Amino acid sequence: MSRWFGKKEIELLAPVGTFEIFKEVIEAPCDAVYLGGPAFNMRLMRKGYNFTLEEITEAVQIAHSLGKKVYVTVNNLLSEAEAQEAREYLIFLEQAGVDALIIQDFAVLSLVRGMGLALPLHASVMMNVHNLEMVKALQELGVTRVVTSREMDLQTARYIQRSSGMELEYFMHGDMCVAHGANCHYSSYVFGMSSSRGKCMKPCRWDYRVKKDGSIYPAEYPLAVKDMYMYEHIPELIEAGICSFKIEGRMRDASFVLMLVNTYADAIDRYIADPIGFDRTKDAKYLYENRKRDFSTAYAFGKPGLANINRRYEGTGKFYSTGRVFSTPTPEREVSDQRISEIRTCLSTVKDTADRPRQERAAARLAVRVNNMMQARMALEEDVDDLYLSGDVFLPDLPFTQKDIESLCASKGNSRIYLGLPRMMTELHFEQYMQLLGRERLQLDGLLVTNLGAVHAFKCLGYPLIGDTSLNIYNQFAADFYGEQGLERVSVSAEMTAGHLAELLTHSRMPLEMIVHGSPTVMYMEHDLYENTELLEPVGEEDNRYVDNEILVLMTDKGENPVYRDQHGRNHLLLGKELCLLSILPELREAGVYCFRIEGAPYKVHDLQAVIRAYRQALELTAGAEAAESSVLRPVFAGYTLGSLQFN
């Protein structure tokens, strides 16, 4: 089955959560379905959903007999221990004849290529593809389709498709995340349940209060976004070059999915048959009356602002439309002596390998990411090994100028200075950074790269490249992949648990960096929470407890999380507590961590200086010496946490 508008092929892609749902949906007027198997996908939290191996084989046979396609989601991050199971699963999927895999982790791409499998690969929305350079890089790697970033507007999609010829898949209906794909680590830090491994506990659906400048605002559920709704904009989707119209809903029942498939299929067919006389609103009221949440076109036509936030009860702390609470506000765990001891024991299991001999561990480095010139100058005076100039500068500070960079490089001493890039890079960003970096060689020691597109665009300029945490390195295969792309070292995923970190340190051939202190961004989003304080009237007064009043905080009964706005207008939700791994630094060093990073952006200069000195002293300890205690520092936020290392 296929649909054509002129020379443009159009696919209506339906979700199926179980084999019983599949048997009904595949008979409906969709062109393809996507589903998850027993492992390695982003819907592992609901019992009874996903397909067995036998059901996948039968589903492919049924779909192909009807001239339709089956795509299988293999779209979560893999741990080292899962690699062999993944190999066997990939071989099975090729033998079953599935039409493509939807993937997030470059480990899957590496395994498919390494085993010589002929499985077509589609880049998942969790790969967060958001610029032309990323698409070009994926094309060179053999990826045949991209599920675009949720934040991609149709004008950008149109430009990318026409410039690259890549097949683009676009979410047109269903549940959306407020954060950029694979850039939400809140669930990992609080519950040990990784949103990049199919186990998100939906903290975006909690009831928060918004507080800023001493005032409280009636924001209710400020992160709970509406459902995507593009029923009335099928012409614009086709004009933008979207080839696959994707419905979200692998955890929805058959009747709901069938309603969406039948309604959207009818609209697409009506438009193909008579584009001039097309009635956009024919079944709009019907869809609205049967909605789960309220509707939005999200970022399809630009930033939606507060209009994207849901007020309907299903989105207010309740994940299912039945009203069942999915999770509740929970504080970061306290640092305990028992857990520190358990982590030390876990790290002691790291084995030496022929690829990573012990002598490589001798020269551990201390890196600091800074937000302004005062922090940068202080860090150079403290003789940090690596200084990262942030590409996402928290306001009210201003971005580093070329003059700033030249001034710092002229006085760097023994330190190395790296220019950080924005996490999300638009076509405008590429033009700006190419103008800065491509005219003449700056005295930088390298770039801190945040996405595959940046690697693809800038590696030809000759600057050494270091991979930031947004690359989400969770296994040796992904680390090796970026090594093949020319990176000198990579930062491990912020979601890394203690056991998985030990596995990675045992097997990785790439030098590894790790964030050990600070308040990392746990939710990175285009959505601007500050609009709540600009468009709503306050309902109360209360000062912030830990950060300046000019910084917005999200409050629950468990604490306060600061939210910083950067120079691009994007929001960074931080932990309420500071990550502090000072107590296990010798063990991390002995296990093979090469570079230890402090996230310095939120700190005042004297507080950051104290942190740098404490970690420098700890790193100067000889192996086996007594660990430095976190009590030598005074927490600036609500206290200390071990982050995802709290969990095995």
TrEMBL record:
**Species whose genome carries this gene:** Paenibacillus dokdonensis
What lineage does the source organism belong to? Bacteria, Bacillati, Bacillota, Bacilli, Bacillales
Tree of life domain = Bacteria
A Pfam match is: Peptidase_U32
Q: Which PANTHER family match?
A: 23S RRNA 5-HYDROXYCYTIDINE C2501 SYNTHASE (PTHR30217:SF10), PEPTIDASE U32 FAMILY (PTHR30217)
Name of the molecule in the record: U32 family peptidase
